[in-house]
Amino acid sequence: MEKSGRSSMNSMMRALPVPDISRTLMWRILSVAAIALPIVVMLPGVVGCLKRGCPMITISAFKWVPPFAQGLVRDLRVRWALEEAGLAYREKLIDQEDQKSEAYRSLQPFGQVPTFEDGGLKLFESGSIVLHIAERSDALMPAEPDARSRVKMWLFTALNTIEPHIMYLAEVDLFHAKEDWAKQRRPAVVKMIQKRLKELSAQLRDREYLEGRFTVADLLMTTVLRIPRNTTLVQEVPVLDAYRLRCEARPAFKKALDAQMAVFAKHAPPIA
Ligand SMILES: N[C@@H](CCC(=O)N[C@@H](CS)C(=O)NCC(=O)O)C(=O)O
To answer: How far away, in angstroms, is 166 Cα from ligand 1 center?
Structure first.
């Protein structure tokens, strides 16, 4: 009787859906690990943050500029680089009075925008700031040493070889257009820009980006090519215009531009 009772129990057990113990255990371990691992990894950083105060990147930007400059102010470069790198930041918004203040001059000796602060590090010059960000982000800088050097070469090209001529034209068109010297000088300035843009476009004819893939050099070059938007100089060079549009189509660019424009919209002076 007892024997037949045990065997009927065994056959009952076999009929019931018995859980696969090892699989259940494995899932439990994985679930615990999924929760615990990030905590363990982040804990030292969180504790350090609580002790020393959390470092947070701060960049300076103007509260407001006239429409001709909106979307071109150089904090855009830094915002864009930070967006590409996935780094959060806060803004230090300044006006013309702040530009002259001793406190701001201690960050930017020329009273200009942008500045960058991260913990104890304080930087000015948009080129140096985006390079600093890029050196720490795969999104903006390749790993291979020669490629890194070429990216820096193009970054200097944007700032030293292309931007000065473009800025000269901006000076002529936006600030001195009615003056005789500006009218006389303008054709030569335009000619020089056309020469430089043609030479640059020859480099981009067979490639989408300056160094194989999007890098901080493309970011800077694009912001430079945006400056003469009161002219058709870039549109006249289809390869360059397509390149500019390709870079501007990046979600990080849109976020950066929206962030700069939102500040101007918020601080717009009342219409008289
Ligand atoms: N070479 C500097 C130029 C900075 C610059 O010209 N910033 C402009 C805004 S885009 C500015 O602050 N202009 C006001 C001024 O010079 O007083 C850089 O790239 O950071």
So the answer is: 14
Nearest residue CA, atom 2 of ligand 1? 125
- Segment 81-139, tens digit of pLDDT: 999 999 999 999 999 999 999 999 999 999 999 999 999 999 999 999 999 999 999 99
State how far the Cα of 105 lies from the Cα of 138, in Å rounded to an integer. Answer: 32
Cα gap 177→165, rounded to integer Å = 16
CATH number of 145-254: 1.20.1050.10
| Residue ranges covered by each domain of the chain | 12-52, 145-254
Beta bridge partners of 58: 90, 117
CA distance linking residue 191 with residue 185, whole number of Å: 10
Give the sign of the dihedral formed by CA 245, CA 164, CA 190, CA 151.
negative
Q: Which atom of ligand 1 is nearest to the CA of 108?
A: 20
